[in-house]
Amino acid sequence: MITALSIENFALIEKLNIDFSNGFSIITGETGAGKSILLGALGLVLGKRADLTSLKNKDEKCIVEAHFAIGKYNLQSFFESNDLDYEEETIIRREILPSGKSRAFVNDSPVNLQQLQDLSFYLIDVHSQHQTLELSEEEFQFTIIDAIANNQELIADFQLILKKYRAAKTELENKKSSLSGILKEKDYNEFLYNELASAQLKAGELEELEQSYEALNNVEFIKENLSALLALANDEEFGLLKNLKEFRSTLQKNSNFSADYGLLYERTNSVLIEFDDIVKEINRASELVFSDPEKLELINQKLQLIYTLQKKHQVLTVEELLGIQNELENKVVSVVTLEQEIAKLENTITDFEKQLDGIADNISKSRREAIPVLTEKLIAILGQLGMPNVRFKIELMAARVYHNNGKDTLQFLFSANKGTDFGLLKKVASGGEMSRIMLAVKSVLAQYSKLPTIIFDEIDTGVSGEIANKMGEIMRDMSRSMQVFAITHLPQIAAKGNCHYKVFKTVSGENTISELKLLNTEERIREIAEMLSGKEISDSALNHAKALLN
To answer: Which residues contact 308 (CB under 8 A, 6 or more apart)?
Structure first.
């Protein structure tokens, strides 16, 4: 429950600090006094968006802080999952800076708006006139029935599997789309792959082939040069070998006279050995050089094939061709792989559907058991609220598709009077009837939910007299198990509260301020009397107010 609320620099509120008690609290005030401002400030700590128009003084920040006693509501797991410090007296603070930026804190830990909204789901139900319209929406109607049917765990299990099911369906569609695209190009890809595979390409092959081609294509020229080199080396009169040997022999004669000459002799001897080896290599090479037209033609054919493939695939190297070959191979092979994966996914989806159908059947069964209970309770409460002939016909029908809460669709039919046909709630119920039905629904939900606090914002719209008195009694009964606030214009409801707060405006110079005050007994009598008779309070109005309070 909410135990305290403080507001600074919000709309018409300069500074406000108020404590709340459990039970049934009433909030009254003239139209425009600031009741909606109070709800707006509370909405900030519950995660609603705000802007600079919320600031009374645009140069100062707005702060709204609410204290909640949450020790009885088993919220430790929520705090753990959101990495927040759990405190039985939890403080939520919202700040709006003059720059327009907004900050939020739970027990001094910064949080985002989504976390605030998620937490507020467990703390407060603010019922506005707008929410009465939700009564005609199927999703809200299911919420009522599922609360009575205690379907929360079943629906949570259903939603967990449904999430996996939808993910698997999406993956299946993606894989089928990929397979379809690959199959369209399958023949062409296979042709391209086979063409590259049959070429038997190897990394670095192009350079080797080009060198071999040049060598074979210039055999005569190479042979002629090698013969010339051998003649230069081996000529008996002027050959390099003969001259080098004579050079070494002459140098040897001086080697006995100086170490330097000896060193030069050793170096010359090394040159002679190396040159002799070179001549032998050239001689062997010369013996191996011969014309081979067939090999030259084969190399030429392989080169032309590689050049053609390079041009076709718009690449410059064999390595790039091999990369394309691998990609094509993967596409060709992926057809089989994708078909296997699709088959596996289809089996998985079938398993999910069996699980979902089983849980959906259990949800539907418990709903059918809950509907008579709901109908009976609503009729009993609405009978007290001046609708003795009201009837409900709640039809549950099986759907072929999976919804977020099962496989049912719902028709919530209503008849207010004897002899009238059933019709859809939103079409046949008046505004006053919708208000009473919503109060009856909230009263029933209070018996099944563990929500700490509910705020009724003018749920009494369209009712008066004894009906208003009964509505007040129902809200007072609800306050025995939860904290209830009612913002009302009706004295019959105002008199039923344990505590009574008044919202009012004061004017100081050019400044208008909204304030909230807890009324004492005498102030409360005068407030209810004013609600009965207006500003001119008569003695009969005062007596009537006292009678209502008693």
So the answer is: none
What interhelical angle do 521-533 and 539-549 show, nearest 10? 120
Selection from 312, 300, 298 nearest residue 195 by Cα: 312
Query: Hey, how many other C-beta atoms are within 10 angstroms of the C-beta on 492?
Result: 23
- Residue that finishes a domain, picked among 316, 333, 350: 333
Instruction: Tally the C-alpha atoms within 13 A of residue 41's C-alpha that lie toward its C-beta.
Output: 30
Whether 195 is in a domain gets the answer yes
| Alpha carbon distance 438, 132 (integer Å) | 6
Q: List the beta bridge partners of residue 403.
A: 406
Per the structure, the complete domain to which residue 194 belongs is given by 188-333
Query: What is each CA distance from 342 to 166, 273, 331, 335, 337, in whole angstroms?
Result: 15, 73, 16, 10, 9
Q: What's the pTM value of the predicted model, to 2 decimals?
A: 0.66
Same domain flag for 119 and 219: no
As for how many domains the chain has, the answer is 2
CB crowding 325-356: b at 16 or more within 10 Å, else e: beebeebbeebeebeebbeebeebbeebeebb
Tokens 């190396």 sit on residue: 274
Nearest to 337 by CA among 345, 325, 347, 348: 345
- Determine contact, residues 430/462, Cβ cutoff 8 Å: yes
Which sign does the torsion angle of CA 491, 492, 495, 500 carry?
A: negative
- The residues, any chain, with a CB within 8 Å of residue 369's CB and separated by 6 or more, are 149
Structure tokens that stand for 167 in this block:
């993910």
| C-alpha atoms less than 13 angstroms from C-alpha of 66 in its C-beta half-sphere | 24
Of the listed ranges 90-99, 144-153, 287-296, 401-410, the one predicted with least confidence = 287-296
Of the pLDDT bands very low, low, confident and very high (cuts 50, 70, 90), residue 476 is very high
| Cα 376 to Cα 536: distance, rounded to the nearest angstrom | 45
Strands of the sheet with 453-457, listed across from one edge? 124-127, 453-457, 483-487, 24-28, 499-508, 511-518
Amino acid identity at 549: L
